[in-house]
Specification:
With about 220 residues, the protein is α/β, with parallel strands linked by helices. The protein is about 30% helix and about 15% strand. The longest helix is centred in the first third of the chain and has 17 residues, at about 25-40.
């Protein structure tokens, strides 16, 4: 990875509070640190926002709605669609609005990345088993190499978070999984530790073994 062909993509760190996400405070802190390191290294920072029209036009099939018909989540007439103040975009950052989970589906993200000459993505955000995971798969299908910062991610429950990260690690071969400290070290050109698959389905798991398997993924040096 070189800083000249790399971008940071932050998935959906918005003010939406219609559902609980565990460990969100730590995710925000880690994202803020990673953003600062990328800006210092001259790496572009790209944000995505999930948006639903308040009148329901274009809403995903059977997406939850209030009794009024308004979408329960990310309605465009509420300030919950805005990026969290703690990690707010600055002048020159790119914000991509999307109407489906993946950051690449019917958006300009791929165009922006290609215009910037980007080949490597540092990525994190929410939710791990939804918008983040679909974005990671779609980035891989478009031949981007990825560094997934696992402590910049969270979901509505720990099991979904662990399963999603493990599934991505098993099948996205051009993926490194690392924590914020190692991501910052890598951005700065220093030594770092990351997990990367050496074969297909490298981290098989059963319900009873998921936590043990997940530990191998997020602590590769132990």
């Amino acid at each position: 990875m070189t800083t000249t062909d790399t971008a940071l993509v932050v998935i959906d760190l918005q003010k939406e509070s219609g559902f609980g996400l565990f460990g969100m405070d730590a995710v925000v802190r880690n994202t803020r640190r990673t953003i600062a390191a990328c800006r210092a290294a001259g790496i572009p920072v790209i944000y995505t926002r999930q948006i639903n029209r308040h009148d329901g036009v274009g809403l995903s099939l059977d997406e939850p709605r209030h009794a009024s018909g308004e979408p329960q989540f990310y309605a465009d007439n509420r300030d919950s669609i805005d990026i969290l103040d703690e990690v707010a975009p600055e002048d020159g950052d790119i914000v991509i609005d999307k109407y489906r989970w993946s950051a690449f589906f019917d958006t300009s993200l791929d165009l922006m990345l290609k215009s910037l000459g980007v080949k490597h993505l540092i990525i994190g955000g929410v939710v791990t088993d939804g918008c983040l995971m679909t974005s990671v798969f779609d980035a891989y299908f478009r031949d981007y190499r990825l560094q997934l910062v696992h402590d910049m991610c969270t979901a509505s429950n720990e099991g979904a978070h662990m399963a999603a990260l493990t599934i991505m690690a098993n099948w996205v071969y051009a993926l490194e999984v690392l924590d914020t400290d190692n991501a910052i070290a890598r951005v700065g050109g220093g030594d770092y530790t990351a997990w990367q698959a050496s074969e297909a389905d490298a981290l098989p798991f059963e319900p009873e073994t998921l936590r043990e398997t997940f530990g191998k993924l997020v602590a590769p040096s132990s």
